[in-house]
Specification:
- The chain is α+β, with helices and mostly antiparallel strands and 140 residues long.
- The chain has one domain: 2-Layer Sandwich (60s Ribosomal Protein L30, Chain: A), CATH 3.30.1330.40.
- Helix content is 21%, strand content 31%.
- A hairpin with a 2-residue loop joins β1 and β2.
- α1 runs parallel beside α2.
- The chain is globular.
- The protein starts with a strand and ends in an 8-residue tail after the last strand.
Length: 140
C-alpha cells in the first residue's frame, strides 16, 4: 500500500506481522514530519477514562485530533509505539487500534511495562506521521 510517497515493507524473508501493521514504512521524497508525544486516556477536561478499553479509545481519539490539527490523516502514520500495563490488554489494544485507524498498517511496536506516569494510566501511545509537503501544508 502506498500513501503519497510512502510504502509499507513486509519482505518475504521475515515472518509476517502478527496483526495489522507493517515491519517497516519507507518514505521517499520531501515530507512534513509530525512526532506525537505519548498520549494517554485523558479527555479534554483532564478526566482519566474509567476502564482499559475506554482509555485505549480516548488515547486514539487524542492522536487522531493531533493528526487533524496538523492537516494529516491516519494514513500518514508511519510508526506507532504503544505501552500497556497489562498483558491481558493486548487484544483490546489491537482491536481499538484497528477500529481507530482501519486499513492503516504503519510500523508498530507494543510493549508491556510495569507502569506509566500516573498509576491510573493503562496505555500510552506515541506516533510519527509523514505527509508529502503538498498534502495540506499551509505553512510557508
Amino acid at each position: 500500500m502506498k500513501i503519497g510517497l510512502s510504502q509499507k515493507l513486509n519482505p518475504s524473508s521475515v515472518f509476517p506481522p502478527f496483526s495489522a501493521y507493517s515491519h517497516a514504512v519507507e518514505c521517499k521524497g520531501l515530507f512534513r514530519w509530525l512526532h506525537i508525544s505519548g498520549q494517554v486516556g485523558v479527555d479534554i477536561e483532564g478526566r482519566v477514562a474509567s476502564d482499559s478499553e475506554a482509555q485505549h479509545r480516548q488515547t486514539w481519539k487524542n492522536i487522531l485530533a493531533i493528526l487533524q490539527s496538523a492537516n494529516m490523516k491516519p494514513e500518514h502514520l508511519v510508526k506507532v509505539t504503544a505501552y500497556i500495563t497489562e498483558q491481558a490488554d493486548t487484544p483490546i489494544y489491537r482491536q481499538v487500534r484497528d477500529d481507530s485507524i482501519p486499513g492503516v498498517e504503519c510500523a508498530s511496536t507494543l510493549l508491556v511495562i510495569s507502569g506509566l506516569a500516573h498509576p491510573d494510566y493503562k496505555v500510552e501511545i506515541e506516533a510519527i506521521a509523514a505527509a508529502p509537503v503538498d498534502s495540506g501544508d499551509n505553512s510557508e
